[in-house]
Design brief:
The chain is mainly α and 220 residues long. The chain has 5 helices and 3 strands. Helix 1 packs antiparallel against helix 3. The longest helix has 33 residues. About 11% of the residues have low confidence.
């Protein structure tokens, strides 16, 4: 269930927002980056100094990396189900796939935290309207101006908060999976034992559970 909430956050507040709003916010990022000099080559060098990686490309790469573990797990699960003799009961399939699903969640958490840290280190939490550049071939300290800094700052704050919510959902899902443990083996519970009931016990007392009751299925 927690994985479904993460998927909703991913689709609505990341992919949809980035495709509809993010492209308009950052599409003129380089064209509207204006510097008060006509020195050839100065503006591209200053833009590279101000934004080592484009905001929009960084966020798109973030979405791709976060989607990769879930997509690879789905491909692996479909491949395993298509193998002869690997179908079995749903509990058996869930038991075989759960370690791989837990691994995909761990990779997703590591990628999420890594990108949040990278966003904080590369851009901070505020887009400054003025950037002072003093790299060659600029002849002196050059003032460069960023377009729509307030709008970009609001978008960066929104995306960072969504990232924190997504990381918390992934951590909650990992804790739920570790607490739940692997699904029980099919057909092992309440299996009659070969020996009879002890004297003085009812006939049904010989049937004891050989494994813990199921505590839920694997959530993909």
């Amino acid at each position: 269930m927690v994985g479904r909430f993460w998927l909703v956050v991913m689709l609505l507040f990341r992919i949809l927002v980035l495709a509809t709003v993010g492209s308009d916010v950052f599409e003129d990022e380089q064209e509207e980056f204006v510097c008060n000099t006509q020195q050839p080559g100065c503006k591209p060098v200053c833009y590279d100094d101000a934004f080592p990686i484009s905001h929009y490309r960084f966020l798109v790469f973030h979405v791709v990396v976060l989607s990769a573990p879930a997509a690879l797990f789905v491909i692996f699960a479909v491949h395993q189900a298509a193998k002869p003799g690997h179908g079995g009961a749903p509990s058996q399939r869930a038991r075989r796939l759960q370690p791989f699903y837990v691994g995909s969640v761990v990779v997703r958490i590591a990628a999420e935290l890594g990108f949040l840290l990278g966003q904080a280190l590369l851009y901070g939490f505020r887009v400054q309207p003025l950037f002072v550049c003093h790299r060659r071939p600029c002849p002196h300290h050059v003032d460069c101006f960023v377009s729509r800094p307030t709008e970009k700052t609001v978008f960066i704050h929104f995306y960072f908060v969504v990232g924190l919510v997504s990381a918390l959902l992934s951590l909650a899902e990992l804790a739920h999976l570790l607490r739940k443990g692997p699904p029980p083996r099919a057909g092992c519970c309440h299996r009659p034992q070969e020996r009879g009931a002890a004297p003085g016990q009812p006939a049904g007392a010989a049937e004891e559970p050989c494994c813990p009751p199921p505590r839920g299925d694997l959530t993909v």
